Amino acid sequence: MPRATDMPDAASLLAALDCLRSAVTIFDSAGRLVHANAHLNYLFRSLPPHPTLLGRSYEDLIRLEIAGGEIADQALACGAEAFIAQRLRQLKKDEFAPLDVPLSDHRVVEIKARRDKDGQTVLLWTDVTAPRAQMARLNEAVTLSAEAFAFYDANDRLILANELYAHLCGVKSLDELIGKTFPEIAAQGANSGRIVLDETPEHWLERRLKSHRDAAGAVTIRTNTGEAYLARDRASPHGGRVMIFTDVTDRVRAEKALAEQEHALADANAQAEKQQSYLADLAKRLDQASASVNSAKTTLLRTMGHELKTPLNAILGFSDLMATLADNMSPAQIREYSGLVHQGGNNLLKIINQIMDLTKISAGRYDLRLAPMDAGGVLWMMREVFLPRAAARGIDIDAARCPVGLMVHADEAVFTAMVHALLENAVSFTTGNRITLSVRAADAGIRVTVADNGEGVAAEDLVRIQEPFEHAGRSEGTGHAKGAGLGLTLIKAFAELHGGTLELDSQLGQGFRATLILPPPPAAL
């Protein structure tokens, strides 16, 4: 590893290390200290200022700690030289185990050391007093527990238990179990003869493992010495498993176990009642959905009568004119009529594409190609696209609140189309003179907002206009002029397909605001 001072930004990097709440020391291949951050003096208050320690060896630092009374008496019980030798062993090649050093003021410092291929060594010193105290209290509580106790980590390996658990498993020492997985320990118990089985060991082990995988399980285990235990198995919040074995041999504990079973039965009955209520609610929703489908069919037919016939009439009418008057038409007229035909075709294609996209999404067959992309960059690009149209209507588009580099996890084509549709709505329908674009990070995700200062929409219409074939205006005449009414429906569907949402905020006379909330890339979480 190159020396820290040889790196291009070494000064900035070393200065940043002083902000850490852990001490960092770097020793060169000759064993001399070449860097120590300020936290070293916080951990060991008797040491000279860390810049004056440069050039000293690790052994020199240890002796200064001892001379300053920093080290606890129990750590020096075998003598200072033995303590120093123990500390120096951490610097040997392939030594990765961390070392806890108890201090005289009852703090505990954990030291981790790593040596690189060039012989340099980096030591990380961390105050672990609080977690070590918590672990000590937990170990004491487990040891003193009157019941067998075991805790498995997220990899299902036993990391903590008491001797009662070892006795129940039929082993003489707890050390024989620590580090083993639950399937290994359960198989050992099933085949040891310690547990009385009413079936083959294979069937018992299969049931036991199934109960262990449930969020919460309870089984009764009988031993060959006549004892009976209620084994309660629960998942911990951090992915591990907690197991407690209660002796239910006597009548009192047997009655307690029975009460727990009755309570579980009551819970099951409550769940059954909830299930019945859910089924009744589901039937009601199905009826409502059926009525909604019939209404949607009627609306679709009515809307298609307007939205498909109008551009088709334009295409057919102007193409007939061009065919009939071709010999007498000027190039300007040809360009005008062909432009109108092209516009009508584009309107038809837009409606058909929107219906096809909604159909794919409803059928669960729309595949997104998710990747990190720059949300602010897309808004700046869309601003450039719409500037000419906005300028023609006297509208200013402000993108000052769109920082470049704020990433979303989205399909690039779909995200671009959603922003394009929102900005197109704003430019086409606002009665104001300003459109504001913004991108910011929030707890719910990345918020992409398109807002205008126009007349706005009544608050009671905000839910309705997100439904298919609905418009901000209620009359068919105004609705017809604004398209098929699928734009916001499609944007909402695409947002939800990304795991996000579409929020609309407006009141009459106070403008209209549309906000896409999409998740950030997984790395940013």
Q: Can you walk me through this structure?
A:
Helix content is 45%, strand content 20%. About 2% of the residues have low confidence. The strands form four sheets. The protein has a five-stranded antiparallel sheet. A hairpin with a 2-residue loop joins β14 and β15. It has four domains: 126 residues, 2-Layer Sandwich (Beta-Lactamase); 105 residues, Beta-Lactamase (2-Layer Sandwich); 47 residues; 158 residues, Heat Shock Protein 90. It has 525 residues and is of the alpha+beta class. The protein contains 15 helices and 17 strands. α3 packs antiparallel against α4, α7 runs antiparallel to α8 and α11 packs across α15.
Condensed summary:
Helix content is 45%, strand content 20%. The chain contains 15 helices and 17 strands.
Poorly predicted segments: 474-481
Helix content: 40-55%
C-alpha Rg, in Å?
Answer: 36 Å
Main pleated-sheet profile = 5 strands, antiparallel
Distance from first to last alpha carbon? 31 Å
Coarse shape? flat
CATH fold field value of the largest domain: Heat Shock Protein 90
CATH homologous superfamily of the largest domain, by name?
Histidine kinase-like ATPase, C-terminal domain
Looking at the overall shape, the CATH architecture of the largest domain is: 2-Layer Sandwich
What would CATH call the class of the largest domain? Answer: Alpha Beta
Q: Would you tell me the structural class of the helices and strands?
A: alpha+beta
Summed up, the helix count is 15
Mean pLDDT: 80
Number of domains: 4
Major β-sheet strand ordering? 2-1-5-4-3
Q: Report strand %.
A: 15-25%
Question: Quick one: how many beta strands?
Answer: 17
